[in-house]
Each structure stands twice: as structure tokens, then as C-alpha cells.
Hints:
The chain is an alpha/beta fold. Helix content is 58%, strand content 9%. It is built from 29 helices and 10 strands. It has a 10-stranded mixed β-sheet, sandwiched between helices. β2, α22 (515-525) and β3 form a beta-alpha-beta unit. α7 packs across α8 and α15 (294-301) crosses α16. It is elongated and about 115 Å long. The protein starts with 14 loop residues before the first helix and ends with a helix. Mean pLDDT is 76; it is low at 1-7, 695-702, 724-731 and 737-741.
Amino acid sequence: MVSHDDSELSRDLGVFEVFTVTAGTMIGAGIFVLPGPAAEGAGSAAAVSFGIAGLIALVATMCAVELSTAMPQSGGSYYFTSRAMGPLVGAVVGFGAWISLIFKGSFALVGLAWYITEFLDVPVLGVAIGGGFVLTIINWVGAEESGQLQNAVVVGLVGILAIFSGGGVLAADPANWSTAATSGVEGIISTTGLVFISYLGIVKATAVAEEVEDPGRTLPRAMFGAVIFVTLLYILVMLIVTGVMSTDEIAQSTAPVADAGGLFLGSIGGAVITIAGILATVSTANAAVLTSSRFPFAMARDNLLSSAFERSSPRFGTPARSIWLTGGVMVALVFVLDVEGLAKLGGTFGILVFALLNITVVILRTAQPEWYDPDYRTPFSPVLPLVGAAAALALIPFMGLLSQVTAVGFIVLGVVWYFVQTRVGDPVQPDHDIRDQILGAQYRQSIDKKEGQIGDDSPIGKHVLAETIEGTTSPHLVTVMRAFADRLDADLDVLTVTEVPSQLPLSEAEHDVDDDWQEQIEHKLALRDHAVVFDHVRTHDRTDALLKSVNDQTELVLVDWLDPIRKRHLRESHVDEILRSEFPVRLAVLKHRGTGEIGDIIVATETGPFDRAEVGVADTVATATGASLTLVKAIPEDASEAAENSAREYLADMTDLLSSPAETELIRTNDIETALVTRANRADLLVMGAPAHPDRYREFFGQTTDYVAAETDTSVLVVKEPGEQVPLARRLWRRIRRLSS
């Protein structure tokens, strides 16, 4: 984030100013234009459509306020989404929100000209250009001056609408409200999508959050009040219009509110509503300039636009260049575009912004980055934000094909602009993206899952089943067996399997286990409080024999891995089979190398969070042997700072859960396998986790694990959690192979 002194904005806006800015972005075309088409689509039930749209908007406002109190920075929806999902999404949202507000402002300028020409014989184009120029100057002078103008405009507008509402309530005929939606529920929903355009200015008011006094208190009060007030006003106006006019009359009117006012206010009614229309269009255009100009300012601070747009005016403390750019584009659109149509098209992108804001809250709440500490929190999260996002997105199909295509065009334009800036400009901010936030969320979920499961010294089972080969028991296997028995307070079941060729009956296979070897094992284990039970099994299928030896008392299966590791050797081997089988308990496979004691243990993973299995197993061995323990994590060399911080925080949190003291080590590398091999060669034991979903076409139970286990010079302990099924294709292949043998 840029921190230059000339990019700081003064905090001048209070509750009333923010209320009027928020309300001013909504009180405009929504009241003076939309009642006609809304009544045509839903009849008197159009008031319900306004209410539904208001509820959806209120949820988005809650999310916007939470984000604003956590990040009270200029830029609004752009700043929020870029910090949660990265600069690419931020560029799309910032560009689209900026353009959509400019469209709305241009439309308001034309509307202003239309209303003024009701009193004065002046050119419409000249009034629109002049109005845009005046509003740009007012916003350049300062947010406080703009806020004062907004106060006066909204107060005057509300006063006139109060007169309209007071007279209309008395004049409305309830019998007219019996004309429900002409097309039923579908008509109400479709009309909700139409009138939702009126609410798009709500979250845009958060673009001035950096200029708000005490945002933790000011924003919730002002913005919630504005949403509720304007929603009730829309409903009331809609009920009055449909209460004094028939649906056919409303559909044929180009100014239904003015015509309705004339029916119960007499000759003065038209003039009063015309004045209200002038105030409404001024309010909308002014709020559009004030809020939309902050998007280029915030994007420039992140190097997505020229740095010229981030500099504040030394005289007025406002983002001068950004304001003049916004005002200039707004006036230019009056010349060349059908602004009313483009304002509606831009509204579709505004709906996407609403949905993204809701999703942003869910992402940040889940990831819990250190800097995210909002003063206000959306209730019932994540359910309420997700429901709000889904409801907003459900309106897009009712906005028309042209609007949908235009929204896609905005997205493409934002993506192209982002990639151009990353190629020709300075590094953009932030340096993380949504993948980093999701990874951070996974880390925290992983830690939450591990709490109470790692480092628990209480007994968790009764028996540990160890499969070994007669006469070849490695020293490290004995050490691990003893560690599990001590730590888990379990007896040991030592299984020796004699695999008999399929063509030979089991009864003809004569082989007895050496009693001296069993005594040596018992002596090496030196267990005082736990029994050691030996069992010998003759079988045609070694893997099935091991599976059948697991019973209700078995808590862990330990396998001695004596087979050599070479290319394609592991596929269909015993180790391959058992790691791909559905074991009901935790499984650990030891590949022994060397004869020394275990004094240095490392736990390694690739890019995701550690599984509970390998960390818990390594902690068990380290606690029983007194070996040093290091948690090692490899991340890509170009990983963002946010990703690195999340990884470091995760490793630190992990050490707090362990029984044995542990160090952490983070490795930046683009060759993860080689880096893990190099680090493992300096230890006595490497503990790794088997992936949850093995790939049939990889040589073993995971590409990284396979390579590291084969290339390292140290002993390797591969751990797998229970319940991880072998894929269906793999099970079928096993059956076919057995039938053919």
C-alpha cells in the first residue's frame, strides 16, 4: 500500500454526510422513472419487488460496512475485493464499478437537463455539460463541500417526497392494490431485477470510507439507515402511484410519479415533482462523481493506473486528477452514448460487485489474515452473505442478454488492463491473490482440526500391529515400534507373513518362525508394561492377510518396507497395495536406511496444510526418543508475501500443539522434490504423508512422496490416515490381475 503523505485524504464526513451520500446515490431514477415499468411488470406487487431488492441490498450493505470498518480506505468495492482476491479481481471490479457509476452519473446529468427544460428554454446538451462541470468543481474543492451540497439536496428532495407521500396516502384507493402481479411470482422476481438498479449506489458510498470520521460507528449507522429509509420510501411511493392510478395508466405514462402527484396535489403537483426530479438527478450525479472518482485514486495507489491519479490536491486534499478524469468521461458520454441504456447495462455489473462483496466477507472471515479486524461483523456469517450473493446473482438472468454481454465485456476489459499494467508498469498491489487467502483458510481449518488430536498423552488405543520380515527387523523399526507402544499405551502385535505362490496350496507351505528371532525382538523392544504377541500367517495375498489381521483393538498398523525403490518397481508392490487399500486405522510404512539412532526428525509436506497423520506420528516418535523435531514446509519461490506469512503462522501454530519441542523451517524453491531430498539427507528420519486420493497413473502413492522416498539417503516414514479409499478403477484392476494370476 502506498503511504506517501500526498495520498492521504482528510476525514471530514460524519453520519449525516454519509447518510446523504448513500441515500443520494439511490434517490433518483429509481423513484422518478422505474415505477412505470415496475408496475407494468408486477402491478401493485411492484412494491414487494422493491422490498425484496432492499433486503438483498441490506445484506450487501452489511458486508460492505464490515469490510469498510476493517479497511477504511478510499476505493470501496475495489479495495475490498483486491485485498481478498488479489489485484486481478480488484482491477475487474474497480474498472467495472467505476464505469457503471459514470454511466449512472451521465444518465442523471441528462435527466437533470430534461427537468430544467421544463422551466427554462435551454439546450438539453448544454445543461448536462454545464451540470457535470459544476459538480466536478464542487467535488474537486473537497469532500466536505460535496457532502454539504449532498445534505441540502437530499433534505430538499425528502421534504418534497414527504409532501407527495402525505397527500398520496390519503388519496390512494386500496381497491387498486388488489391488482396483483400480472405474471405472478415470476413477474415479481423479474421486476426485482429491474428495480435493483436503483440500489447499486449503496455500497459505492464505501468508496469514501477513508474520509469518514470514526468509520466503525459512522458507517453502520449511516448506511443501514439509508438503506432502510430508501427502501421504505420506494415501497411507499410505489403503493401511492399504484393506489391513485390504474396499471394501464402507469404503463402509458412517461412520468408516473409526476402524473400521480398531479392527481391529488392539483395544478401545483407537476411543478413540485419537477423540482423533486431536479434535486434527485443532481443528487445522483453528485454522488456518482464523489464515489466513482475514488476508484482511479485507489487503483493508482496499487499501480494499476498511473501514479498521477493517486496524488491529492495540495490545496483541497481531494484526488484531483481522478475527479477530473471521472467528470470528463461522464460529460463525454453525454455526447456519444445512449446514457440511459448504458446506465442499465452498468447496473448488471453492479450486481456482480454486490455478490463479490458478500463472498469477500466469507473469504476473509475464513482466512482470518492478521490485519483483518473489523469493528462491525455481519451476523450469521457465512450463511447470510452467501445467501445474499446467490440472491443477487439470481437477478442477472432477468436483466436481459445485452446487459449480460456488456458485463462480460467489462470483465474482459478489466483483465486485459491488468495484464497490460503488469507487463509495462511497476509491480501491482497487493502481491497475493484468492489462492493465497484460500490456502490461509485451509491452514486455519487444519489447525482447528488438529487441536485436541495432536500431543494428547491420553491412551488412544490398545494394540499396534507391526508387520515385519523374519530375521531382517531394522533398528529404526524397533525404535518406532517401541515409541508407539509407549506413547499410545498399547500392546504390540508382531505379524510375520509368509507369501505362498498361488499354484501351491497353503497346507503344503512349510515354514516356521525362528523362536530366537522373536526373543531378540522382545529384548530390543525392552517393553515393561506392554505385551508383545507374535503371529505367523501363510497366505497367497500378503496385503489381504495384513488387512484381515486388523481388528477392533488395532489403532495403528506399522509396516517394514524392505523392497528396493526403483522406477516402476513400486506399482503393484506390497507397499503400493497397502497404501492404496482402505485401511480402517492409521497406517505407517517405514523405509529404513542406516544403522544409527534417530536423533533428528523432520516432517515435510508439499504446498498444502499438513495432515494430522504425519505430524502426530512424528511427534510420537520424537517424544518417545527425545529426538529433535523440525517442521519443514516448501513453498514456490515466487509465492506472495501473504502466502509466506500464512505458512509461517501455520508452522508456528502447529508447534504449539505438539508434545515435543519443535523448530520450523520454510523453504522457497521451484523444485520442491529436490529441496526436500536435500533437507532430508541432513536428518535421521523423514516423515511424510500419503495423499488422500492416489493417482492410478503415478508410480506410487504421490509424485512428490515417491520421488523423495526414492532419492533421499535417510530413513522415510510414510503415514496415511484411515478411510482413504483406493479409486474404483484401481480396485477393478486389482481384481482383474488376481483373476488372471
